[in-house]
Design a protein that fits this description.
Helices cover 32% and strands 13% of the residues. By secondary structure, it is of the alpha+beta class. Strand 6 and strand 7 form a beta hairpin.
Length: 217
């Protein structure tokens, strides 16, 4: 898919979900994946992914060259937290653009935070991550993880023009490994990758998603 389809697009919502029932697993018990604490919460929810997503993440790490590792930032996000993020960002956009319609706000918000009824994070299907060196230094990706379109002037888009060559190469390195492992990217966020959710199904042409939003047991 060459066009950028946003999470708010009706084609994403139209994808059916046939829930697999896979468990949410704690990434931290798999010692080969480095976990950054910046999104840590009291329950440890942030460090969980569906079993199939974690397996593919481990595969992607094997595909990286020596001296480069994945740095996991955030996985599962409880539905209530996702809704809070979406509403807060939508409120900020309304304040900055008082003339926008409700649909314009929803569409713009979905560049950065998925509508809660669609959210891959709430299905345990999405992961925000970057790359790090063997000595623990984050590689240059052109923006920080979770930089908004406003903050980054659009540089958060995976294929944004004007990204320095080294950052472009690092984004390509990350993308090649994750794509080979079966994940898909949300093209407005270079750090956001998913498997098994509705957006993944749309991009890959799957008949249905295998993971839907759920509460953590």
């Amino acid at each position: 898919m060459t066009e950028i389809v946003l999470m708010s697009d009706s084609r994403v919502a139209a994808i059916p979900v046939v829930e697999s029932g896979e468990k949410l697993l704690d990434v931290r018990v798999r010692g080969s994946i480095a976990v950054d604490p910046r999104k840590e919460d009291g329950s440890g929810a942030f460090a969980h992914l569906r079993e199939g997503v974690l397996a593919r993440l481990l595969k992607a790490q094997e595909l990286l060259p020596d001296g480069v590792r994945l740095l996991f930032v955030e996985g599962y996000r409880p539905p209530a937290l996702q809704r809070s993020y979406f509403e807060q960002y939508s409120d900020a956009l309304r304040s900055d653009h008082p003339g926008w319609s409700a649909e314009e706000v929803r569409e713009a918000a979905s560049r950065y935070v998925s509508p809660p009824e669609i959210a891959p994070h709430s299905a345990g299907a999405a992961v925000d991550l970057t790359l790090m060196s063997a000595d623990g230094q984050e590689l240059d990706m052109g923006t920080r993880v979770n930089a908004s379109p406003e903050e980054s002037d659009g540089a958060c888009y995976t294929n944004a023009p004007g990204i320095p060559p080294r950052a472009r190469d690092n984004r390509r390195l990350l993308g090649d490994a994750l794509t080979a492992a079966g994940l898909v990217n949300y093209p407005t966020e270079w750090w956001h990758w998913s498997y098994g959710d509705r957006y993944w199904a749309l991009v890959t042409g799957a008949e249905h998603a295998v993971y839907g939003a759920r509460e953590r047991a």
